[in-house]
């Protein structure tokens, strides 16, 4: 019988089981949480008075793939200010806005995060995304495959393919890019940019295909839903960053007609066009729309002040934003009849009216959405700020006086344009645990993560309670990953390799009858070489796959890893 | 002898285009490209295995002894450089781990070319496209100062003169203009016999020619009537065509821009492309990726944050494209131990100048002076499976094991050396 570890006497926050700050013992064996065992031969770890939550899950963080690596390559001056020296245990690395993979894994673990999901895996670039995430230690990972501006789908749509055919294509993509969900970015807009369109409203037609973003959203949301994939269609909407885009964002939510849909970095899509500067907060209306639509979830994409880099698949709007590049260099790419990307370094300034109001809008959304199960804590790393700023963001949410203190230092006109100062709400530890653990796991579709019930993976974070929540969440006492203690007193003590979470919905293989000639004729690689096999994912001995069932499947499968 | 084994859809790691439609026949250790080959891929796949035994100071030894000797040399070295770096993703990962542990500098043998592009990316950025987009969208291709077909023999066949595009484009209407250098052959000629236009100039004049073209695109008028022997009126016409093209692509092979200050010319091209995008679409297509160049830079960027020419001497990555230029370091006598990794091309041999040289090289490598350690290693895509990046840095292709040569792979040998440190 393998060793049992007992976490003694911690104050547990486990929203998946309704546990709100109760003193409980936890038992860990073979990487899982077990019920109280019969034996008292256990290794005890004293957690009395400490706060215990499941490991945190970042459901939207750009940690792997081509555009992230462009950002890294572009920003030597940003890395040089933030280097990590090699130690006996750790590899060296660097990077503040776009950290190296090793550094990213270490820093996530040090903050008590045990999983992160790359939201923009371009199918044609999926191999790279997984290789990068494969070099990201400790945390589990996974990602969402990007569809919606790929020519194969758009051709299916103009040839009036039936929904089942589209479902097959979506399932095929999920399976062979090794993804956990589907994301759509500026639906059809990345394609439209290749045809020289510079904006695409929800009901505006792609110049070549004649399909609208609304059509694409409907088809993809339906496909994800019918396939039984837990993670709803992940939507980066139209008109990112455009003043006045809030109406279209609300229309997008209403237009999906009750299908599950996740609106990502919604802060960037919550702008009004009021006031002297034609830029205002739409947070109240957006939050109300979320509150009124049970089918909608959102992550915020909070901005925080300082230097970062924006890296997005939305080539159309990244091109539009290039004038704001700081430092003044930027990249835009059209990619493989599949998607695109844009990388624009950016410095959010607290005395800039727009930036200050963006900060306020994000916080307003957090505080005005009633249900913490439907709103998620992100900075859209690194687009709004690097993920290392999460403890600061948590403090802003949990501590009204701190929030108002910061608010009072910001651009005065922006302060005057925001209601943030009058919002009294402070997030509780229980709500933080929902947003960053239980809710995130549920949203991504991880049945055995994000909670502390019997049978759950022993991904656990233990904090010392501290009224300064930024301090508290920066430096956990202990972090366990699959039962191994990887962090002790804020320092990494072990480096493990997490798994990759995927779904593989059933599909009719006849979809390849049309994909095969499509690849042969139009693509620059062969269909067989596009596919990433399970063996390739696990070949190096440290990659491990966790295949989650869809609602039409049963079972839970693990492949690879150190046997 | 048994029948040769036939493999379809094989990807080539030997050129940056990474064509993956090759048919290969393998008989024992002999590999033959039987369809869709070209001079580059045939030489890459068909170079026979000669030596298989590691050597220390010219004497054949077991692998373990060669590994131990390599570790000794690295341990005793106060300045190590790991260069060549012609390997696959796993090989590059192992290089990074070893460089970190041995506090080495990393560089790639093609870095002189790479940095003509990278310095532009890091200074002002660019708008680029990928091979698949070119294949389906290009209406005007401008080739700047480069031959293309000698390095990428199938570029035109695969990306310009494909049978049809996704968007009902009349493929025959595509136009190609060579600016600066004339092509060495007729790969750019269309199947119907339409020849590319050539506006030739000496490479010393290319920077000025490109500057003038950019100025003309920006709508400026010029006093001069000729630049580098090219009529400004002709350049003016080219500028006008770029402006009316719906999806022009401007390409260059940085490896051929072999003149001082070439990065400034690349930058001018990239800024011109940005200007064009104010009204229409235009993209750059930097062609490169020889000998795992893209792979090495990608893996280095994700594991260390920086591309090539990064030192781990301080215990953390420190990037300096001038200081950590391995060729400069070798010429200046700064290198004690050079570890040279070259698994694709037996002709890519280490530069002289290090006190001790360790070579992980493709079988058959010939040296003008015997290195301290030579370990013949397998080639990714022939002797072992792996992944390699294509020139555009977007597509990473899986390459396969085609034969059982018993040659070790770079990743395993470097891991063994690291283990001994
Ligand atoms: Zn994002």
Structural write-up:
Chain A is of the alpha/beta class. Chain A folds into four domains: 1-116 and 447-497, Roll (Urease, subunit C, domain 1), CATH 2.30.40.10; 117-305 and 350-444, TIM Barrel (Alpha-Beta Barrel), CATH 3.20.20; 306-348, no CATH class; 499-560, no CATH class. Chain A is built from 20 helices and 27 strands. In chain A, the strands form five sheets. In chain A, strands 6, 9, 10, 11, 12, 13, 16, 20, 25, 26 and 27 form an eleven-stranded mixed sheet that branches. In chain A, a hairpin with a 3-residue loop joins strand 18 (330-335) and strand 19. The longest helix of chain A has 16 residues, at 353-368. The model of chain A has no long low-confidence stretch (mean pLDDT 97). Chain B is an alpha/beta fold and 421 residues long. Chain B has two domains: 49-110 and 291-420, 3-Layer(aba) Sandwich (Rossmann fold); 114-287, Dimethylsulfoxide Reductase, domain 2. In chain B, 31% of the residues lie in helices and 23% in strands. Chain B has helices at 39-46, 63-76, 89-102, 111-123, 131-137, 155-160, 206-217, 232-244, 262-276, 293-304, 326-331, 410-420; strands spanning 5-10, 22-27, 30-35, 55-56, 59-60, 80-86, 105-106, 125-128, 140-144, 175-180, 197-200, 226-227, 230-231, 247-253, 281-287, 310-311, 318-319, 337-342, 356-362, 373-377, 386-389, 396-399. A nine-stranded mixed sheet of chain B has the order 5-4-20-19-18-6-7-16-17, with helices on one face. A five-stranded parallel sheet of chain B has the order 11-10-9-14-15, sandwiched between helices. A three-stranded antiparallel sheet of chain B has the order 1-2-3. In chain B, helix 3 (89-102) links the parallel strand 6 (80-86) and strand 7. Chain B starts with a strand and ends with a helix. Classes of the chains: A alpha/beta (563), B alpha/beta (421). The interface between A and B is large, with 67 and 66 residues. Strand 18 (330-335) of chain A pairs parallel with strand 8 (125-128) of chain B. The structure holds zinc ion (ZN). Residues 60, 62, 119, 264-265, 380, 383 of chain A line the site of zinc ion (ZN). Zinc ion (ZN) is lined by residues 60, 62, 119, 264-265, 380, 383 of chain A.
